[in-house]
């Protein structure tokens, strides 16, 4: 637990499932007031709010497509109107769908770049506008991936978007460090979430992914939420512009594990 998080206001995008929902649960445990952004799953988001309130927490659910400038403006305003402040913004929403690069329709490329990269810019911009205006030492956390580092055939759009998130995070971190605003990224590896459910339901595919993880297992959303809570808290006060990989060692070149090479 991080005492300084109590009462702080956090927006989490793509928060009705997977890593986003786990971050919400963890932030609520810390006593934070949360804004659950969702795209389609209204029932799920409303149910999350109901349960949080039943347990004496503070939460609202706001629909919005984070690809859109207007929806990010609405999201930030909703947080500030509801809770009177904004402290932490987590750009979590993202998606992926494989295509051989020579067969990838422009619309698929664009859609992934729009959500995973432009969405991070738009969300960060709203948070930064508030932090700068209020001279607030706010905190931004961007969901990157091991694929900001590891090339990923048939996911050129996804890898390009996450490579972009890495330098966007570092550039913004440098730009706003003089104001005490910290901006970091998390690089999850293979995590059991809806984005991967089909792939990991197939035992062969699951095993082949596990063979790429030195710790030997596919991670949980909870293990990523733990990193988000630490990054949001003052315990990470000297960390900015970093990507914290939470990947069971996937970025350690596991094919060299046996000492080959
Ligand atoms: C992707 C997963 C993938 C993992 C490791 C993540 O960024 O969302 O689908 O399993 O990287 O390759």
Keywords:
single chain, 261 residues, alpha/beta, Rossmann fold, seven-stranded parallel beta sheet, binds beta-D-glucopyranose
Summarize the structure in words.
The chain has one domain (3-247): NAD(P)-binding Rossmann-like Domain (Rossmann fold, 3-Layer(aba) Sandwich). 44% of the residues lie in helices and 13% in strands. The chain is built from eight helices and seven strands, in the order βαβαβαβαβαβαααβ. The longest helix is centred in the middle third of the chain and has 28 residues, at 106-133. The mean pLDDT is 98. Bound molecules: beta-D-glucopyranose. Beta-D-glucopyranose binds at residues 96, 145-147, 189-190, 195-196, 209.
SS field, number of helical segments: 8
Instruction: Count every beta strand, where a strand is a DSSP E run of 2 or more residues.
Output: 7
CATH C-level category: Alpha Beta
Widest beta sheet: strand line-up: 3-2-1-4-5-6-7
- CATH level-3 fold name: Rossmann fold
Named once each, the bound ligands are: beta-D-glucopyranose
What's the SSE pattern? EHEHEHEHEHEHHHE
Sheet-strand content, in percent, reads 5-15%
Could you give the topology of this structure?
Layout lengths: L8 E4 L5 H12 L3 E6 L3 H13 L4 E5 L5 H15 L4 E4 L14 H28 L5 E5 L12 H21 L5 E7 L8 H5 L1 H8 L10 H12 L10 E4 L15
Parallel strand pairs: 1-2, 1-4, 2-3, 4-5, 5-6, 6-7
Helix pairs in contact: 1-8, 3-4, 4-5
The structure holds beta-D-glucopyranose.
The site of beta-D-glucopyranose has 9 residues, from loops.
Give a short overview.
With 261 residues, the chain is of the alpha/beta class. It has a single domain (3-247), classed as 3-Layer(aba) Sandwich (Rossmann fold). The relative contact order is 0.14.
């Amino acid at each position: 637990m991080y005492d300084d998080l109590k009462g702080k206001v956090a927006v989490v995008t793509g928060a009705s499932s997977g890593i986003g929902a786990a971050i919400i649960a963890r932030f609520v445990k810390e006593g934070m007031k949360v804004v659950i952004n969702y795209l389609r799953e209204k029932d799920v988001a409303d149910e999350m709010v109901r349960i949080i309130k039943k347990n004496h927490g503070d939460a609202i659910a706001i629909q919005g497509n984070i690809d859109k400038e207007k929806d990010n403006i609405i999201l930030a305003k909703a947080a500030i109107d509801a809770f009177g402040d904004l402290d932490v913004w987590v750009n979590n929403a993202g998606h992926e769908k494989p295509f051989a690069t020579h067969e990838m329709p422009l619309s698929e490329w664009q859609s992934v770049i729009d959500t995973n990269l432009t969405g991070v810019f738009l969300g960060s911009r709203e948070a930064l506008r508030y932090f700068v205006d209020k001279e607030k030492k706010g905190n931004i956390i961007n969901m990157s991936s091991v694929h900001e580092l590891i090339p990923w055939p048939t996911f050129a759009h996804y890898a390009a978007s996450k490579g972009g998130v890495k330098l966007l995070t570092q550039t913004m971190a440098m730009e706003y460090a003089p104001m005490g605003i910290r901006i970091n990224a998390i690089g999850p590896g293979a995590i059991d979430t809806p984005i991967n459910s089909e792939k990991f339901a197939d035992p062969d595919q699951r095993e082949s992914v596990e063979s790429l993880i030195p710790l030997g297992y596919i991670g949980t959303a909870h293990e990523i939420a733990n990193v988000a809570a630490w990054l949001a808290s003052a315990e990470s006060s000297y960390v900015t512009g970093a990507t914290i990989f939470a990947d069971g060692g996937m970025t350690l070149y596991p094919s060299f594990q046996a000492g080959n090479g």
